[in-house]
């Protein structure tokens, strides 16, 4: 099967400091992949490269077969992102926030409106479409951001520490919504976190430490590869 995304030999330095040290991996369709790393591991740097915010010093990324270096517009059109910081306009309604994003991606307005109605209803936001985002809870704002990230039906969804500031119930709902999308649409999700419990139920865990992969596989295999015990014990010992 063709990979959804391929990261090939990424190197990124900040002066003397190496943030990504020749990082390579591929992502397959229909998986939630957790990128687990302690602070400073290189997660944000990787996401900044993947979202085209800056170029790596070496290496390339392919998304749905498009090279980020040679065809950046095509590669980026296949990516959806939920950023760590809330990034909605608080004064605009949910519908207007979503329409704005759809227009940026060139979605015809009838198609956009149909997807907005359907996707919001599926996530329990059907009654909130005309409300300003300011009136929504943190958990529902995150759900709007998820709907927004998926409106253009990207091949690859990036979630950058998406549960920061969410209560446990909202965190669980977000994970459930993501897993549903992975199962029903076969989307590929790369979920960055430093929270080991978010690797529970993931199809695959990539453990990032000092810009390199320490382990890669389903959660039990990763625990074993890192020395055994619980995933949390193994992760803390390996990244100490
Ligand atoms: P994470 O997101 O996993 O916490 P980062 O990608 O933010 O990791 O950081 C990776 C490494 O690069 C760290 O050593 C960090 O100190 C360094 N770094 C990140 N951003 C910068 C920057 N703008 N200037 C210098 N060093 C940076």
UniProtKB/TrEMBL annotation:
InterPro entries: AAA+_ATPase, ABC_transporter-like_ATP-bd, ABC_transporter-like_CS, ABC_transporter_ATP-binding, ABC_transprt_ATP-bd_su_PQQ, P-loop_NTPase. It comes from Rubrivivax gelatinosus (strain NBRC 100245 / IL144). Belongs to the ABC transporter superfamily. This is Putative ABC transporter ATP-binding protein. Gene3D superfamilies: P-loop containing nucleotide triphosphate hydrolases (3.40.50.300). The keyword Nucleotide-binding applies. Keywords: ATP-binding, Cell membrane, Membrane, Nodulation, Nucleotide-binding, Transport. PANTHER family: ABC TRANSPORTER ATP-BINDING PROTEIN, ABC TRANSPORTER ATP-BINDING PROTEIN NATA. The lineage of its organism: Bacteria, Pseudomonadati, Pseudomonadota, Betaproteobacteria, Burkholderiales. Residues 5-235 form the ABC transporter domain. GO terms for molecular function: ATP binding; ATP hydrolysis activity.
């Amino acid at each position: 099967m063709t990979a959804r995304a391929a990261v090939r030999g990424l190197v990124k330095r900040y002066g003397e400091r190496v943030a990504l040290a020749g990082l390579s991996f591929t992502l397959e369709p229909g998986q939630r992949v957790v990128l687990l790393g302690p602070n400073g591991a290189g997660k944000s740097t990787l996401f900044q490269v993947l979202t085209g915010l800056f170029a790596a010093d070496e290496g390339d990324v392919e998304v749905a077969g498009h090279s980020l270096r040679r065809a950046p517009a095509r590669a980026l059109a296949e990516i959806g992102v939920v950023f760590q910081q809330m990034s909605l306009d608080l004064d605009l309604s949910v519908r207007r926030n979503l329409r704005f994003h759809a227009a940026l991606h060139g979605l015809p307005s009838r198609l956009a409106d149909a997807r907005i109605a359907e996707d919001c209803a599926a996530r329990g936001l059907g009654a909130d479409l005309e409300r300003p985002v300011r009136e929504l809870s943190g958990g529902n704002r995150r759900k709007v951001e998820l709907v927004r990230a998926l409106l253009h039906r990207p091949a690859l969804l990036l979630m950058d520490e998406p549960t920061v500031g969410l209560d446990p119930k909202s965190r669980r709902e977000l994970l459930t919504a993501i897993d549903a999308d992975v199962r029903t649409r076969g989307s590929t999700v790369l979920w960055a976190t430093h929270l080991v419990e978010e690797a529970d139920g993931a199809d695959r865990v990539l453990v990032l430490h000092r810009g390199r992969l320490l382990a890669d596989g389903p959660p039990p295999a990763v625990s074993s590869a890192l020395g055994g015990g619980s995933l949390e014990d193994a992760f803390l010992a390996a990244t100490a």
